[in-house]
Each structure stands twice: as C-alpha cells, then as structure tokens.
Automatic annotation (TrEMBL):
The keyword Transport applies. One of its GO terms (molecular function) is ATP binding. Residues 5-236 form the ABC transporter domain. InterPro entries: AAA+_ATPase, ABC_SmlMolc_Importer, ABC_transporter-like_ATP-bd, ABC_transporter-like_CS, ABC_transpr_FbpC, Mo/tungstate-bd_C_term_dom, P-loop_NTPase, Transp-assoc_OB_typ2. The keyword ATP-binding applies. CDD domains: ABC_Carb_Solutes_like. This is ABC transporter ATP-binding protein. Keywords: ATP-binding, Cell membrane, Ion transport, Iron, Iron transport, Membrane, Nucleotide-binding, Transport. The lineage of its organism: Bacteria, Pseudomonadati, Pseudomonadota, Alphaproteobacteria, Rhodobacterales. It comes from the Bacteria. Gene3D superfamilies: P-loop containing nucleotide triphosphate hydrolases.
Length: 357
C-alpha cells in the first residue's frame, strides 16, 4: 500500500532564495508525522504546497498513490481530500457551532446532521451545539475546529501549530484527546510545530527541518537517542559540549580519551553530553569518586550555582582542568553550596561524538 500522503522532491524558492530544498517523505493512514524545526526553516511553506495554496517549483505530491500536483498537473485545493486546521482555528464568528462543523459537508441534510452530532459527541461539545465561537473558551474552540476539519472525512489532515494559542495547562490534555480522535478516524496527519515536546508527544515520525531541508527523519526515540549532528541533539534538549581535536584516532577531554576512528589528525570534534547523563559524587580529599564508571573516567569540578526547578535541580559546574562549564540535572532537591568540589562522571554509551560542522 502506498502512503496516504507522499511528497517527492519538493522545491520552492522566493526571490532566488530556496526555502524548501528537495523535501521527500510519506505518511501512512492513521499516523501522525511532525514537521519540526525553528521559525523560517520551510515548514509552513511545505504545508501550503501540499494544501494547494502555494505552487512548488518542482516535485510531486500524491494522496493514496494518486498524483494531486506536479509542475504540469494540479488539482485545486478543494479536490485533494486534504483538510486544514490552523493555529487561530478560523471559525466563522457569525455561525453557531453546528453550522461551523457542517460547513464543508456536501451530503443530504439528515446525513450532515448525523455527522455533526457524531463529531460533537466525540469532542465532548454536544452541549455547545447552538453556541457561537465568541462564547467558547480557547480549548472549546479548538475542539470545534478539529470536528470541522474532520467532518468531510479528509484522507489527509494538515495542522499548522494547532495548539500554540492554548493555555499551557490545557495543551497536554487536548493534544491527547486530538491524537486519539485522529487515530480513530484513520486520517494521515501532518503537523507543523516548532516545539520538540509537542512532536515527541504526538508523532509517529518526526521530520526535522533546517534551512529548508529535512536533516533527519524517523521515530521520536531514534531522533532523540541517535541524533545526526550536534544541532539535532541540541534541538531536543539542553546539552553540554566538550571540544577537542583528533590525535591518533583519539580525542582528549577532562573525562579521558574518546575514540574517534576514521578521522584525520587535527579534525575538530564536538563531544555532546546531556545534563541528565552527568553523574556526580562528592570529593573525598582528592581520593576520587566512590565508584568510577567502568566505561568512563571522572573529572573534578566546582559548583558555580545550583537552582531548584520544581521536578529537578540544575547544578552548574566548572571543571578544575581547563575550566570547562558543564551543567547537570538531578531529580528532586539537590543544592550544594557554591565552591563545593565534586566529581563528575558520564556513561560513554550516552555520549555523542560529532566532527564539528
């Protein structure tokens, strides 16, 4: 079976500057793909080309294996079986909820009423069927917008930052409700977001964009645990970076030598460690930590500052060797005084080594 949505080698330039460069991916029915990346990386332009409101310079778009657009053939947006949901919800202020949801339906009156009732029940908005958008909260408007987008049973649903206008306390619950409904409908979903947490929570696959290109795509677990480069690692969490140069297939750091085979001597290297993967132990008069990990050495450091963040504590360190700044996060409350000497340790299987770009 072909993917429900397939994009092949999309390109788009404005004023001679390419903003989407050779983008390709597929989204199966019933799955959510997230186009993730910083503002201006080409996410929304890609979405507009798939929706049919912008035209690609080259490349092809398919729905259920059928061509909907290339540089010669182009189905109009309303014939692509693609639904749209935007961050401002775009509800019609002069129509009640029932008519907003029914707006895109083309069946008979009874069938339309049944479809509206079904969806409002599934998004728990039946009691607001006669309300107008201005009478609803942001979360309620989001549910109505979702019901309206799904009412015509689109094969593909495009969502552009759909949760960004919601109060942070509401987002997780509404994301989960939305995801459950989309899965039930079997719709292929392409969600645009700049928030890694949202992509990790909702996506079956993440398409990480940078400067108009997809730099890495795959399951959230794979992007987090096997990033393609330092920038990918930094996009999903805070990082510590040790720098060095290759000497005889090794790179020296305060934590000992790291294997960097296959790279010529002098190659600059970034060694990336997430703060939660730094382990600590108190200094015992220069005797070293109580238990040094078998797969790594320890570095002596002093506490610069410690802060409690709610679920965890952030401790900032500076190593005694080379005065390198490093951050560690620890669960619960841990607030050692400034100047405290401590040993920092790491697991080498949780460290990423990249040639510096």
């Amino acid at each position: 079976m072909p993917p429900r949505l397939e994009v092949q080698n999309l390109n788009r330039a404005f004023d001679g500057q390419r903003v989407v460069a050779d983008v390709s991916f597929g989204v199966p029915a019933g799955q959510v793909a997230c186009l993730l990346g910083p503002s201006g990386c080409g996410k929304s332009t890609t979405l507009r080309m798939i929706a049919g409101v912008d035209m690609q310079d080259s490349g092809r778009i398919f729905v259920d294996g059928k061509l909907v657009c290339d540089t010669v053939f182009r189905l109009p947006p309303e014939r692509r079986a693609i639904g749209l949901m935007f961050q401002d919800f775009a509800l019609f202020p002069h129509l009640p909820v029932s008519e907003n949801v029914a707006f895109g339906l083309k069946g008979g009156h009874a069938a339309n009423r049944a479809r509206v009732a079904e969806l409002l029940d599934r998004v728990r908005m039946t009691s607001h069927i006669d309300s107008y958008p201005h009478e609803l909260s942001g979360g309620e408007q989001q549910r109505v917008a979702l019901a309206r987008a799904l009412a015509p049973r689109p094969r593909v649903l495009l969502m552009d930052e759909p949760f960004s206008g919601l109060d942070e306390r509401l987002r997780d619950g509404i994301r989960d409700e939305t995801l459950a409904l989309l899965k039930e409908e079997g719709t292929a979903v392409l969600l645009v977001t700049h928030e890694p947490h949202e992509a990790m929570r909702m996506a079956d696959q993440i398409l990480l964009m940078r400067d108009g290109r997809i730099v890495q795509q795959g399951a959230p677990y794979n992007l987090y645990n096997a990033p393609a480069d330092r920038q990918v690692a930094a996009f999903f969490s805070d990082i510590n970076v040790l720098t060095g140069r290759v000497r005889g297939a090794l790179t020296a750091t305060p934590f000992g030598d790291f294997l960097t085979p296959g790279l010529p001597d002098g190659t600059p290297i970034d060694i990336v460690i997430r703060p939660q993967h730094l382990k600590i132990d108190f200094d015992r008069g220069g005797k070293g930590p109580a238990a040094t990990p078998e797969d790594g050495s320890a570095a002596l450091a002093r506490v610069v500052r410690a802060r409690y963040l709610g679920r965890e504590s952030l401790v900032e360190f500076r190593t005694e060797q080379d005065a390198i700044a490093l951050n560690a996060t620890l669960p619960g409350v841990f607030l050692p005084p400034e100047g405290t000497k401590m040993w920092l340790m790491l697991r080498r299987d949780r460290v990423f080594v990249f040639p510096r770009g």
